[in-house]
């Protein structure tokens, strides 16, 4: 009797904390951090326990164990005033947020790679398209929609220049990159067009999104624009070299006549918009640059700088391949367009539209 075809497997990887004074005596900090974050949101340890499915006694026991380990309280408690995190409690929650934002792209890439390896071991006959792109909110939404429709895609998160170079070398079928609208469009596009050929490649429009400055809630330092990055003592957090946002930042600084090395923290980098936002929200930097969605999710003040288009570059002949058609169908679907439009700072009017290089950027 022939073996049944195995269904594609889904793999998810997540960071897990354990804290202790020895390897043999540790606290499950992951459960503690979930509890602290929920208390921060609800103002009540009893409500936090209910939301997490923990008894009141268990939640208190976990908290007391942690406070004994750290040697100081994690919650401030008052009659009729609910519960609030101490400075240490808040530091732990923000540390967890930074770790999650920093590791998420790596873990998702590894999970996707593992799914592909398992699929090959299972002798999955259908070829799976490969998507290389920076980790962004619309790309994450696309992964969710593809998974919901059981459309398999191997995803690798890398910066825009690396993704387009990978496409040119035949290492992927979709390469994500973004280009600012307006004065910087031609110069930014030229960096990617070095890898793209008008006769060989097409562009699939993903979204228009707004990039700007992330600053603390209420903008306590009174920042108004990019020129403020030259202020003495202002702590900046950057994106890695080769990322589309790093390219954008360099162009903006050139227009301001501000040398990159004059920006304090220029060499301090985080891999994603979310990681930059978490870094600023935790108080480790005063300002960063990224998309508006990340600022909203971390409760930051946002100062718009410009709008940009995000594309997937694809081989022109791949548009008609059966392997890519399901991905394009999701990209063009009303459900995905609505999902992108719901992201703060994103526009989806042209999502799924296929363009030539000339149509996108001119001759």
Question: Can you describe this structure?
Answer:
The chain is of the alpha+beta class and 363 residues long. It is built from 13 helices and 13 strands. Mean pLDDT is 88; it is low at 1-6.
* Oligomer type: single chain
- Low-confidence parts, pLDDT < 50 over ≥5 residues? 1-6
- Percent of residues in helices comes to 40-55%
SS summary, helix count: 13
Rg, rounded, reads 23 Å
What is the residue-averaged pLDDT? 88
Order of helices and strands: EEHHHEEHEHEHEHEEHHEHEHHEEH
Features of the shown structure:
nine-stranded mixed beta sheet; 363 residues; two-stranded antiparallel sheet; alpha+beta; disordered N terminus
Concise overview:
The chain has 363 residues and is an alpha+beta fold.
Q: Could you outline the blueprint of secondary structure elements for this entry?
A:
Elements: E1 19-22, E2 25-27, H1 29-42, H2 45-52, H3 56-70, E3 75-78, E4 82-85, H4 87-121, E5 130-133, H5 137-148, E6 154-157, H6 160-168, E7 174-180, H7 185-193, E8 201-215, E9 236-237, H8 244-256, H9 273-281, E10 287-291, H10 292-297, E11 301-315, H11 325-331, H12 334-341, E12 346-347, E13 354-355, H13 357-361
Parallel strand pairs: 5-6, 5-7, 9-10
Antiparallel strand pairs: 1-2, 3-4, 7-11, 8-10, 8-11, 8-12, 8-13
